[in-house]
Hints:
- Helix content is 79%, strand content 1%.
- The protein has helices spanning 14-24, 31-59, 64-91, 94-118, 125-153, 156-188, 193-212, 239-246, 248-276, 282-337, 341-365, 372-403, 407-436; strands at residues 439-441, 447-449.
- A two-stranded antiparallel sheet has the order 1-2.
- Helix 4 (94-118) packs antiparallel against helix 7.
Amino acid sequence: xxxxxxxxxxxxxxxxxxxxxxxxxxxxxxxxxxxxxxxxxxxxxxxxxxxxxxxxxxxxxxxxxxxxxxxxxxxxxxxxxxxxxxxxxxxxxxxxxxxxxxxxxxxxxxxxxxxxxxxxxxxxxxxxxxxxxxxxxxxxxxxxxxxxxxxxxxxxxxxxxxxxxxxxxxxxxxxxxxxxxxxxxxxxxxxxxxxxxxxxxxxxxxxxxxxxxxxxxxxxxxxxxxxxxxxxxxxxxxxxxxxxxxxxxxxxxxxxxxxxxxxxxxxxxxxxxxxxxxxxxxxxxxxxxxxxxxxxxxxxxxxxxxxxxxxxxxxxxxxxxxxxxxxxxxxxxxxxxxxxxxxxxxxxxxxxxxxxxxxxxxxxxxxxxxxxxxxxxxxxxxxxxxxxxxxxxxxxxxxxxxxxxxxxxxxxxxxxxxxxxxxxxxxxxxxxxxxxxxxxxxxxxxxxxxx
Length: 451
């Protein structure tokens, strides 16, 4: 049989392939797309985590009450951006609209960099708030697009095996990003982080195309055309919003994300308050946030490499989704009893590691049983507007509790019941997904059990 769409890939040592298969559950024909996807996610998370410490440090210049209102501004911007994104999805093939979205954010970053370097006198509290909102939108859209492409590229059965090791590539980037930020910000200042992030975004565009075009046959490893590359998804720019009201399953995913972000926002403001107490210097705060992110991502990577794939395979998606609510509940109880920066670091690192190492890959498998329009449009609404709506709700509730003087004990009294509801929703989503996916089709077009 001759080659189709390209030459045969380099031969891989069978011993190496066997070891990889045992350790990561990646089949030989999946190795190239999985590695490309992991590198793609590495570039995205490196860019994001380079900038996140600067986002947090700049956003705090007007105090924590201003950050709560910034969350509301971010939610409004994501709501307005969704029809624009839906229009792109409806009219262009997947690689062009991914490239257009990433390219827009890269150009925006260069504009911010120019402002910080060419006109530093114009930089102040207002520009810091604008950057905070912009970054919050940027963060959600670039990660949402990555996982949408993964759900479009891989089947449900593949996603349970491949998403954890692919996510580990992102964790490596999330470890490298804060490390690089910490090395660059002290001698060169915060502005230098922006053009460096642009370089990683441009690499991500090329890798997105490579992942989309990396379809290979399982027997010979030959590259074959993916018919989805040539298809425009079509439909309405507003289809994603309508889908959330038309499908209980999609509404359940949205509810899961809403509760997750409310809880994460409770923890986020606790983190900001404790770091704010350390001092007012922007570069000091940037360095502190970078170190916290470094240790969080290190814990995440260990979970992804050692537990995530095996957990989804052995206990299922629903049970895996329950782990984060249980960890959050335990964490808030611990903070209420032993509130300190050291305890916060442990709770923050542990829960974020579970969220990124276990919950995120499991949650992304939920979309593999849906149609392409829902994978991009409905997912975009959930992962951007619903996500930020949860931030707004969490920020306002936390602010009210703070003004009432209830402290960490009051926060825990609200968080624990929410965690119970959140856990029940995760179990329901896992069972519903199993009913929707008796069989799926893997990347080679062969019927494969949904496991």
